[in-house]
Amino acid sequence: MKHISLIAVLIISLSACSSVDVSHDSIKSTDSIKFKTFNVKAPNNDDSLNNERISAAIKQGLVSKGYQFVDNDISDMDARFDRLFEEDIPSKVNVGVGLGSVLGAIGASVGASHRLVYDQETITISLFDKKSNSVVWKGTATDEIESNPTPEQRQAQINKLVHAILETFPASF
Predict the structure, then answer these.
(1) How many angstroms separate the first and last alpha carbons of the chain?
(2) Reduced to 3 DSSP states, what percent helix, strand and coil does the chain have, rounded to the nearest 5?
(3) DSSP-derived pairing of the beta strands 107-129 and 77-100
(4) Domain boundaries defined on the chain
(5) What's the pTM?
(6) 61-80 tens-digit pLDDT
(7) Residue 171 DSSP code
(8) Range 104-138 burial, b when 16+ CB lie within 10 A, else e
């Protein structure tokens, strides 16, 4: 019975783990080598604090890959982003344990269902070729976030998502 309890605890623990879900898309003909400079354009909304956090994380991420941040008028590419915050997303955790016997009609089963609710944040970064004004690369990351996070927790979460997105973007040569 100790083994069954241990397995149940392990299953619940693993299901509670959160990992960043990342995806990206790009135009195959795009040669990232031609891009050397960038600018960041925030969306036109009333979330200036998070816009500043995301802009700073994008700047840091692209500079660390060898791109140079410059004024909008002379950049090779624009980095534009969107942020989606979703509250109270339902999630179900189901745990089932069963026992049986090959030799007889002995059996037992225990099932439990617990409804969990969590908040989720999605950041999408689109990189535009400044000359053609067309998207050449797009990355998206989604992760669960703390309810009522502190400013430091918000910045850490944004940095985590932006880093995960830009990890798949090629470096400048």
Answers:
(1) 59
(2) 30, 40, 25
(3) antiparallel
(4) 19-86+123-166
(5) 0.72
(6) 999 999 999 977 899 999 99
(7) P
(8) eeeeeeeeeeeeeeeebbebbbbbbbbeeeebbbb
Asked if residue 120 lies in contact with residue 140, where contact means CB atoms within 8 angstroms, the answer is no
What is the number of other CB atoms lying within 10 angstroms of the CB of residue 58? 24
Integer Cα distance of 35 and 30 in angstroms: 10
pLDDT tens digits along 128-173? 999 888 999 999 999 988 888 899 999 999 999 999 999 988 876 4
Q: Which residue has the tokens 């009333």?
A: 46
Amino acid occupying residue 19 = S
Tell me the C-alpha distance between 159 and 161, whole Å: 6
Q: What are phi and psi for residue 82, nearest 5 degrees?
A: -135, 150
* Domain 19-86+123-166 falls under CATH 3.30.160.670: yes
**Beta carbons within 10 angstroms of residue 17's beta carbon:** 7
